[in-house]
Specification:
This protein is of the alpha/beta class. 40% of the residues lie in helices and 20% in strands. Bound molecules: adenosine monophosphate (AMP). Adenosine monophosphate binds next to α11 and α13. Its cofactor is Mg(2+); Mn(2+).
């Protein structure tokens, strides 16, 4: 048995799972939220049941300590299960970290040094790593980077057409994110097609609150919609995705908005939230049902952008074996899946409305038998992928 404690540390939260890396079974799942606020909240589910409580959690060190307490109180016992590694999700690995990496002091400092590229994500990732290394000093800690799967992007895909000196000096290029999910899902897609990853071309749409789409050729990411940061590409819950960069100068000059104002606007007040006032697809559908025209337009913009990318990536790949939907929206929203792929019959992409109907908790083909392109829903499992990669590195 190879249990791995998988940690995903955000600015005010720590999500965790204890995952067995061969079977994929999670023996504990939990969430620490509102770190740094007056009252933090804890949720832990293990073989002994489910616990929820609130207590002050001033920082990530206290958060990790609270997780240890929950394992002690509710189980399973870490002393008995003896995890073989701690796997840490890290958002930005820059040019250096193109594979999962064993964390030592130097690596921890290097991840921290990448913070200017991911100011919202890397600092809390490092805080989580630091706290967990102190709590589990004898275990190997492995950093798994969201950007790593996209390190295979060819230069023509990752290069922005701006002054090359400026780009080089400041690390301005497309990095791509959600790599752990795209890696897991594209490999599962090959398995479902009964082929090796090297032999298939797949388009993966990871549609969660954040969303990105990736073209995977022969197991390698060759094009992806997120860029320097997770802001580029698809319409998301609260992010705009693609816009003309001149919108920023226009708002600075005409609306008197500051850089920070516009950062907040595009990252937190745009996307579905900006268009319709809600960022959750369930609320969006309810609003459409109630006759809200803004909500109807928001869904159309969302699906239009998605269709645009599927067509673009088809053109880049030349041949597509599968289009795959994953994450919260991709797994649950049959309207988005049907609408986003409508009108693509000439490309061999067809969705069978009956197969597509409803939420998909398991891997499901939603195209008709004999379709040129297999359209699938594959529930993502980033924790399992992190656990497997952590074991591979820890066993060296
Ligand atoms: P994720 O970031 O992968 O957890 O996805 C979260 C998003 O999934 C939510 O913001 C919703 O938009 C979407 N979602 C979750 N459940 C459903 C559902 N039953 N139907 C439609 N969308 C859903």
């Amino acid at each position: 048995m190879k249990h791995v404690l998988v940690l995903n540390s955000g600015s005010s939260s720590i999500k965790y799972q204890l995952v067995e890396a061969t079977t994929g079974e999670a023996s504990a799942v939990g969430l620490v939220e509102r770190i740094g606020e007056a009252e933090g909240s804890l949720r832990h589910e293990g073989p002994g049941g489910r616990t929820e409580r609130t207590q002050p959690i001033p920082d990530h060190t206290a958060g990790v300590q609270a997780v240890l307490d929950l394992f002690r109180e509710v189980g399973p016992s870490l002393d008995e299960l003896r995890p073989v590694a701690v796997g840490h999700r890290v958002v930005q690995g820059g040019d250096r970290f193109t594979a999962p990496t064993l964390v030592d002091d130097e690596v921890e400092a290097a991840i921290d040094a990448l913070s200017p590229l991911a100011p919202l994500h890397n600092p809390p990732n490092v805080a989580g790593i630091r706290a967990a290394r102190a709590a589990f000093p004898d275990l190997p800690h492995v950093a798994i980077f969201d950007t790593a799967f996209h390190s295979t992007l060819p230069p023509e895909a990752y290069t922005y057409a701006i002054d090359r000196e400026v780009a080089r000096e400041h690390g301005v290029r497309r990095y791509g994110f959600h790599g752990t999910s795209h890696a897991y899902v594209s490999r599962r897609a090959a398995a479902l097609l009964g082929k090796e990853p090297e032999d298939v071309n797949v388009i993966v749409a990871h549609l969660g609150n954040g969303a990105s789409i990736t073209a995977v050729a022969g197991g390698r990411s060759v094009e992806t919609s997120m860029g320097l940061t997770p802001l580029e590409g698809l319409v998301m819950g609260t992010r705009s995705g693609d816009i003309d960069p001149a919108v920023i100068f226009h708002l600075q000059r005409v609306a008197g908005m500051s850089t920070d104002d516009i950062d907040t606007l595009l990252n937190r007040r745009s996307g579905l939230l900006g268009l319709a006032g809600v960022n959750d697809l369930r609320d969006l559908h309810a609003a459409i049902e109630a006759g809200d025209d803004d909500a109807a337009l928001a869904l159309e913009v969302y699906c239009h952008r998605l269709r645009h990318y599927v067509g673009a990536y088809y053109a880049q790949l030349g041949r597509v074996d599968a289009v795959v939907f994953t994450a919260g929206v991709g797994e649950n929203d049959d309207v988005v899946r049907l609408e986003a792929l409508s009108g693509l019959e000439r490309l061999g992409i067809v969705v069978d409305p009956e197969r597509n109907a409803g939420r998909k908790k398991t891997e499901t083909v939603i195209s008709p038998d004999g379709a040129e392109v297999t359209v699938m829903v594959i529930p993502t499992n980033e924790e399992l992928e992190i656990a497997r990669q952590a074991v591979a590195v820890a066993e060296g």
